[in-house]
Design a protein that fits this description.
The chain is built from 3 helices and 44 strands. It has 693 residues and is mainly beta. It is globular, with a radius of gyration of 25 Å.
């Protein structure tokens, strides 16, 4: 139950609203929510799926810089902190925890303006973002093998012809500062075009104190975002949208400490850097009868460095137990090129349909360099690998009105992935996986403001292979995974649009469930981990998700979201451990977020966010668990038509909470197995100023 002592400003906000509100003044309506990550852009009330859309006001009030700050507000969404920013997401307990080696094979799709960043989505800064869409459950028709668990889409603002610009400055403790500019207007030389440009840089120290090097910035963040969007209306019903982006996140990585604190002992801190360039071109034509043709071409190229101090220590800290010194560095290059060609009918009649062709080419290279020394035993590992995959798909969807308020939708996707992997250890794999998925759903509008829906979906994920000379021959390859999901839900958009609510139940069944595990080959070497993915017999999960937003008065808005999840393996044996019945990793049984936002007509505002997450298993390889935790964020400020000034406080009570945990031996000479965790961000205070004209 939500109590005042855990949510100290809520009574104050309610009192302010009650004593100062002018009740004759009507609350402003909530913004209309249109989901764009689906095959057709559709109002959320009409979508037979579990979805969370965080609009521009939520992005503005609930975050400062990065998508990471919004993740607590999304039901059933988790992330594993094996990187400086979230790269590895889990939806309903399904998703990768890291990628130290092998080929990319994400379970959660990730798009920024139609550009694919699945598995490498850490570059999601929030400046000038219009909304964040999270589709939960298998997206077998829409996105195929890269969205077994769901899809995250970051949509930035589109260009408008009206000229304008805005500036943003931020500063805070932990060495935080940021500066950004957004500008745009009519496209020169045209009467039907517009452009929009964004540039921002943000830096901070990363909340660690390296006591050996005497530095506060070894885990620091230095993040550059540049975007350009163009829109052009062309003759005869044609239009084109071009998006270009350049994202350079040059972050340090010194996140783990032997004593699980924020004070590190590494003598060779690592880096977690990603430089990405992307382009997308969306062209379309609309005929007089509503028929549409859409083509979306996207390309992205990313250079990534992931390096870290493997022993988390230094000669002085190890003393007579040393020398003990290890370091790992991986240079990763990834490029993707995709084409989605889609033909859509009009939506005015009882029938509507669409059909499409999709193609994706992915290429990735990895250069791994590990070195180390324990006593008089040196260690060196070099692994060069190259991977490419071509995916092709044919998909279609038909929608039929079977009654004035009831519609049935059927979608199907046929997909094939052909891949090739080679490495300097002699690894050579050429898997070919034909797969299919789809959805059958029913939507019934009980009134103009409410709807019920029921959906049966089938998603899929391609198979793969395990690399390394120590991998037994019978465990070299694993099969595709399939996910069945049965869901039912209710949605409400209240009269006057001051109330929005939704709730849904789901049951999922995983067939040939892919389970990633790891174990340490040499207890005296922290870099000799063997990573394996196997097909468990099956797994299942059942859950409940919901959200609520209410403009209670003209000055007060309240909101809440939450999820319940019970997951388990079925018939899975890991070594001598029988994991049947155990929950999946990073699959908390409950999660919630609440907020209260108050705005005065004279410009004053205040907001409180309170969120909580249940404990969860850190990994499949061991049974160590994280404890539950609760976080509180505060924001207050003054807003005028053209400018605003806000002060904010994240993690106000300075809670310590883990975002990733490992169980292994890393302390000589006895190397006892222990739980090592990476902690989330501690308390941080800052101010943000914006000016527009």
């Amino acid at each position: 139950m939500l109590r005042a002592r855990r949510f100290p400003l809520l009574p104050l906000l309610l009192a302010c609203a009650g004593t100062q509100a002018t009740f004759a003044q009507q609350p402003a309506p909530l913004e209309e929510v249109i989901v764009t990550a689906t095959l057709r852009a559709v109002p959320v009330l009409e979508l037979p799926a579990s979805v969370t859309v965080l609009g521009a006001d939520t992005v503005r009030d609930g975050a400062v810089q990065h998508l990471e700050e919004l993740l607590p507000q999304v039901p059933s969404l988790s992330w594993a902190g094996a990187s400086s920013r979230p790269r590895y997401f889990q939806l309903r307990g399904i998703g990768e925890l890291e990628q130290y080696q092998g080929a990319p094979n994400p379970s959660v799709g990730f798009l920024i303006d139609e550009i694919d960043f699945s598995g490498i989505g850490m570059v999601a800064s929030l400046i000038d973002v219009e909304q964040v869409e999270v589709l939960r459950g298998p997206q077998g028709t829409r996105y195929g093998a890269n969205a077994l668990a769901g899809l995250i889409k970051v949509k930035t603002r589109d260009p408008v012809a009206e000229p304008g610009a805005s500036f943003e400055l931020g500063a805070g403790d932990d060495g935080l500062w940021s500066a950004g500019v957004v500008t745009g207007g009519a496209l020169p030389g045209t009467s039907t075009g517009a452009w929009r440009a964004v540039l921002q840089r943000a830096r901070s120290d990363g909340f660690r104190r390296n006591t050996v090097l005497g530095r506060d910035d070894t885990n620091g963040r230095d993040e550059l975002t540049a975007r350009l969007k163009l829109h052009l209306d062309l003759p005869r019903g044609w239009h084109a949208d071009l998006s270009l982006l350049y994202l350079d996140f040059d972050n340090g990585y010194d996140a783990f400490a032997i004593d699980n604190s924020l004070r590190t002992l590494s003598d060779r801190p690592g880096r977690d850097a990603q430089r990405s360039t992307g382009i997308s071109l969306a062209a379309g034509w609309r005929g007089a009868d509503g028929l549409e043709l859409r083509s979306t071409t996207a390309w992205a190229d990313s250079d990534i460095e992931a390096s870290f101090d493997g022993d988390w220590g230094n000669p002085e800290s190890w003393g007579s137990a040393g020398p003990y010194d290890f370091f790992s560095r991986t240079l990763r290059g990834r490029s993707t090129l995709s084409e989605d060609l889609r033909l859509l009918s009009g939506t005015g009649g009882d029938w509507s349909w669409l059909a499409g062709l999709w193609w994706l080419r992915l290429e990735e290279s990895n250069r791994v360099r590990d070195d180390g020394l324990y006593l008089d035993w040196p260690y060196e590992r070099v692994l060069d690998s190259d991977y490419d995959a071509t995916s092709r798909a044919l998909y279609g969807q038909v929608e039929r009105a079977v009654a004035p308020a009831t519609r049935v939708t059927f979608g199907l996707r046929l997909e094939e992935r052909v891949a090739r992997y080679t490495d300097s250890d002699g690894g050579d794999f050429h898997p070919r996986d034909p797969m299919w998925g789809g959805q059958v759903s029913v939507t019934h509008a009980t009134s103009a403001t409410q709807s019920l829906w029921l959906a049966l979906s089938r998603g899929f994920k391609a198979g793969g292979f395990n690399i390394g000379t120590a991998v037994p021959q019978q465990r070299r390859q694993f099969e595709p995974e399939y996910l069945w999901s049965l869901e039912a839900g209710w949605k409400l958009r209240g009269t006057g649009r001051t109330l929005a609510a939704d709730v849904n139940l789901f049951y999922t069944r995983r067939e040939q469930q892919q389970v990633a595990t790891s174990f340490q080959l040499d207890p005296q070497d922290p870099l000799t981990f063997l990573f394996l993915t196997d097909n468990a017999a099956s797994g299942e999960a059942v859950g409940l998700e919901g959200s609520l937003r209410w403009r209670a008065t003209a000055r007060l808005e309240l909101g809440a979201s939450g999820s319940l999840l019970r997951s388990r393996f079925l018939g899975y044996q890991y070594g001598a451990r029988n994991l049947s019945g155990r929950a999946w990793a990073h699959a908390p049984e409950w999660k919630f977020a609440t907020f209260a936002a108050w705005r005065h007509p004279h410009g004053w505002m205040a907001r409180v966010d309170w969120s909580g997450t249940a404990g969860f298993y850190h990994d499949t390889s061991h049974d160590q668990r994280a404890g539950s935790y609760f976080l509180t964020n505060l924001r207050a400020g003054y807003e005028r038509e053209r400018w605003s000034l806000h002060a904010w406080l994240h993690n106000a009570f300075d809670r310590r909470y883990p975002v990733r945990g490992f169980w292994f031996g890393n302390e000589p000479p006895d190397f006892p197995e222990k739980l090592y965790v990476r902690l989330g961000d501690p308390r941080q205070f800052g101010v943000t100023a914006r000016y527009s004209f």
